[in-house]
Amino acid sequence: MTQPVPIRRVPAALRPVRVLDAFCCIGGATKGYQSLGWHVTGVDIIPQPDYCGDTFHQGDAIEFIRAHGHEFDFIHASPPCQGEGAPTKGTNARRNAAIGRTYPRLITPTRAALEATGRPYVIENVAGSEVRKDVRLCGEMFGLAVLMHRYFELGRWTTLQPAHPKHRGRVRGWRHGAYHDGPYVAAYGKGGGKATVDEIRAAKGIDWSTDHLRLREALPPAYTTWIGRALLTHHLTVGLGVAA
Fold first, then answer.
1. Per-residue model confidence as pLDDT tens digits over 16-37
2. Both ends of the chain: CA-CA distance in Å?
């Protein structure tokens, strides 16, 4: 009689870090964590056929965090930024009000859901948003051809702000009727010398999508590779046992 094969469970210390990428889009943040050998699950309210992660769930990201966030070792959240930036709150506020245009403001409920999980997390967003500005990253820190300053609120862990090198020049494109050359592409909007699909792919280090809008929205993977390494350094320092 054949004896049953015993189940061999992988010790927690040897399995990959399990990451949840909330509001994942095509997975710019996901790819950075995957570069560390981590397993990444993405969740987004709309279909993301170009998503590059290990697993994808379509649905409300905040509800998913509430229901499943505790199952992950680390959670990355990038709530929609359209309602957070300075133009929406300032320059364009009156025009948006006149035409009834509104944007979701999801940082506060996202933070509450993340805190309830008891897991370490990061919330990423733009200048002018309500995220706590614990860390600012810029493409120049990684030698990228895009600036894209982004801010990161760190929950249940800490790290030091890295040095912000001086920009090497201007963002290439038209400004107020004059064309300016420079080492960086304008990876936002269209027209006026804004970056093409190929330029954004090259500038951000994203080679798995050709969707212009999603490419504009995506984080360069280098940002979250840095975040992941900083998280590992923190856990090794304080002895919380997150596996590399």
1. 999 999 999 999 999 999 999 9
2. 42
Torsion angle in degrees (nearest 10) through CA of 173, 179, 182, 184: -10
CA distances from 78 to 21, 94, 136, 199 (A): 8, 26, 14, 23
Residues in the chain, pLDDT under 50: 2, 86, 88-90, 92-93, 96
The string of DSSP letters for 25-73 reads TT-HHHHHHHTTT-EEEEEESS--TT--SSEEEES-HHHHHHHHGGGSS
> Would the pTM of this model clear 0.70, i.e. be above it?
yes
Alpha helices in the chain (DSSP H): 28-34, 61-68, 86-89, 93-99, 107-117, 197-204, 212-217, 221-238
How far apart (Å, rounded) are the C-alpha atoms in residues 77 and 111?
Answer: 9
Nearest to 111 by CA among 134, 82, 90: 134
Whose tokens are 């992988």? That residue is: 10
